Amino acid sequence: MSALTFDKSELGNLEYSLQREMLSTDRLGGYMSTTIVCCNTRKYHGLMVSPIDDSDRTYVLLSSLDETVIQHDQSFNLALHRYPGVYEPRGHKYITDFEYTPTPTITYRVGGVILRKEMLWIHKRTQLMIRYTLVDAHSQTRLRLRPFLAFRDKHALSKANMEADGHSYPAVNGVKCRLYGSFPWLYLQTDKEDAEFVPAPDWYYNFEYQQELARGYEGHEDLLTTGYFEMELKKGESVIFSASLDEMGSTKTIREVFEASIARRTHKIDFISCLRHSARQFVIRRPGGRTEVLAGYPWLGVIGRETFIALPGITLEQDHKEDCMDVLDTLVREMRDGMFTGSYSAAAEADAPLWFFWTLQQLEKQVGADEIWKRYGEVMKQLLEAYRRGIDGRVRLHDNGLIWAWSDAEPLTWMDAMVNGRAVTPRNGYQVEVNALWYNAVCYALSLARRFGDTPFVREWEELPARTKVSFIEHFMLPEGYLADYVNQMECNKFIRPNMVIACGLDYKMLDEEQQLSVLRVVRQHLLTPRGLRTLSPRNPLYKGMLEGTPDERNLAAMNGTVWVWPLAFYVKACFDIDGGRFLHEAEEMLASFNEEIQSYCIGSINEMFDADPPYTPRGAVSQAWSVAAVLDIYRMIEAHRPAEPAPRTRSRKTAAEPKAAKSPATRKAATAAKAETAETVSGKPATKTTAKTAKAAAKRPAAQATKKTKKE
C-alpha cells in the first residue's frame, strides 16, 4: 500500500486539489509539473518544461492538454483552467480517483464512461507520454486531445503575437510544431493508426495563474493551439499520446517505450521511498559529461552552496556514491587558480568551497580515506591556500585565524535575500558558520595529511586551528550562552539565528560540550519548530511569522523568521553527538512530523521553507534538494543510533552466541568525549569537558522545555 493516499471525496474540492502539486523529471533538467487535477496555477507549471540546448535554461513547450469525451454528439471537456474570475471548463467534477504511484494516474467518470489517464515522463530523454484507457463505456465513444503550446522561458509568460507559427506539419502518426524558429521541433504523436489530427490554430487568452498573483507577480498568459487529435475508442482500448523533441519512428515504438518505462517505475510505498525517489530527481546529467544538482523545482537552478549541502543526503543515503563523485569531479575539472568557478566560488558564496570539505567527510564513510585523499587531496590544499591569499578582494584569512567576508554589492552567505538592491541581512565581517566551516575544513585536511604522510602541508598548517579556535571563542561566544551571528569592526551581532548550530553539528568543533549544550538550549527555546529552524527568534522586533505578500515582503520574512528545513539536520547531529541513543526518540518524532508534508504542496517531496508561526504553512519552491537531503540525513542518523535487534537464541545455550550488549549512556558519553578529543588533537588543545552528571542534567532540561513548547504549539 502506498504512503500517498488522497481523499477521493475531496478531489473535486479546488481548495484541496489545487494545493497539491505533482512533479516528474527526466534527469536531464526537464520536468512535468501541475496540480493533481491538471490545472496550472504557476507560470512554471507545464506538461513539458525542458532545456533546448546545452545551457541550464528551461522552457515551457507544452503547457497543457485538454481531453474531451464525445458521446451521442455531446462533448464533455475533462480539463480545468482558470481565467479571471472563473474556472472553465470545470472537468475536475468528473474526477473520481487520483493515484501517484507508480505514475500519476487520474480516473474520470462521465455518465457511463470511465476513462483512466496515466502520465509518464520518460527518464533520460525529453518525452512525455500519456496513456488513456477507456475502462468502461456503453455506446460509441470518441476522445479529443487538444494541446496548448507556450514555447517560452519558464520565468516568462506567453502573449498572443503575429510571429508565432500556428501551423502543424506532418510526422509519423501525428504532427510536429515549432512556434518560433529558435526552438526545436516538438513532435505530437499517438500510437493509434486511425487517430486524426484536425488543424485548427487559435489563441486562447488570459489563462490565470493564481500562485503567481499571490506571490506578487504577473499571472496571465495567452496560449496557442494548432489543432486537435480525435479518435474512436472501444471499451478496454487504450491510446498513447507522445510529446517529444525526437520523432518516434512508429506506433509500435511508442507502445514499447511506454511499456518499458512504466515497468521500471518504482512504487512509492512509504515515507522514505518517496523521499528517495524525490532525491534522485535533483541529480542532473547534462551534455559534455556534466553532472549537477538542481537546487529545487520548479524555478531554481544550480547553486553552489546548496549543491554541497544537499549532495550527501540525496546520493549517499542510497549508496549512490558514483553520482556524488561525478558532481564533485565536474566542479574540480572547472577550477581556476585553485578555486571553484561560478556560484561555487568563494567570491560569490564565501562558504561554498568550505562545504566541499564537509561533503568529502560524508563521502569518506563510503569510499574510504585513501580514495578521498588520492582523488581530492590536492584540491583541498588548493582551496585552503586560496582562502589564505584572498579571493577577489572579498574573502580572506586574517592573521587571527578567522575568515573575513565582505561585499557591499551582494550578500556572501546563504542569507542572501535582497530588497531594493540591499541585503536583508548584511552579515559582513566574520560570520559564525563560515568560520565554523573553516575550522572543520582545515582540521579535516590536516587529519588526512597526517595519515598519508604529507609532512610539508602539516608543518605549514598545523598551528592554525588553535589560533582559529581561540579567536572564534573570543569573538563569538556571548555571555548569554550562545554565539554571535557575525562580528565586524562596528558591531557584534547578537541576533538569535540558526547559523550558530552549524558550529555544533560539524565533526570538528571549537566549542566544548558545555558550550554546545548552552547553544542548543537557546536554539531549542527560540528557533526549533516541527518543520525546521526559524531564521530569527520570535522575540526579535524584526521577526516575521508569515511568508506572504509582495516579493520584497517575502524576502524580508525569509531571513527574519521563516523556517528552513536544512539546518535541522545539523541540530539533530549535534544532539546525537552529545546524547547518543538518548536522543533517538526525539529525533524519531522530528522525522515523523514530516510525514504529512509528502501528501501536500509537492506530492512525495519536501518544500523549501515554512511559515514561522503555526500551522507552519509550506512555502517557496515545492521540491527542494537540501530539504529532502536534510530529512534523509536525519533518517540515516536515526538508523545509525537505533539499537540492533538481539540475535535469536538457538536451542543449545552452550553454542548460542549472545547478542552484543548495547552501549550504556556512560559508554556513549565516553565515546563522544573521545571522538571530540581526537578532533581537538589537531589544534593541540583538547576541549574542556563537563562531568557526565552535569552534562546529562543539562541535556534533559532543554528536552523538557522543547516537549512543553511543542505541545503548546
Description:
With 713 residues, the protein is an alpha+beta fold. It is 33% helix and 24% strand. It is built from 19 helices and 35 strands. Strands 1, 2, 3, 4, 5, 12, 16, 17 and 32 form a 9-stranded mixed beta sheet that branches. An 8-stranded antiparallel beta sheet has the order 8-9-10-11-18-15-14-13, covered by helices on one side. A hairpin with a 2-residue loop joins β4 and β5.
Topology:
Layout: H1 14-17, E1 20-25, E2 31-35, E3 46-50, E4 59-71, E5 74-77, E6 80-83, E7 86-90, E8 95-99, E9 105-110, E10 113-121, E11 127-136, E12 141-153, E13 169-171, E14 174-177, E15 186-190, E16 196-208, H2 210-214, E17 220-233, E18 238-244, H3 251-263, H4 271-280, E19 283-286, E20 290-293, E21 296-297, H5 304-315, H6 321-333, H7 352-367, H8 369-389, E22 395-397, E23 403-405, E24 418-419, E25 422-423, E26 430-431, H9 432-451, H10 455-461, H11 464-476, E27 486-487, E28 492-493, H12 502-505, H13 513-526, E29 528-529, E30 532-534, H14 551-558, E31 563-564, H15 568-579, H16 584-592, E32 601-602, E33 609-610, E34 618-619, E35 623-624, H17 625-641, H18 665-680, H19 692-712
Parallel strand pairs: 1-32
Antiparallel strand pairs: 1-2, 2-3, 3-4, 4-5, 4-12, 6-7, 8-9, 9-10, 10-11, 11-18, 12-17, 13-14, 14-15, 15-18, 16-17, 19-20, 21-35, 22-23, 24-25, 26-27, 27-28, 29-30, 30-31, 31-33, 33-34
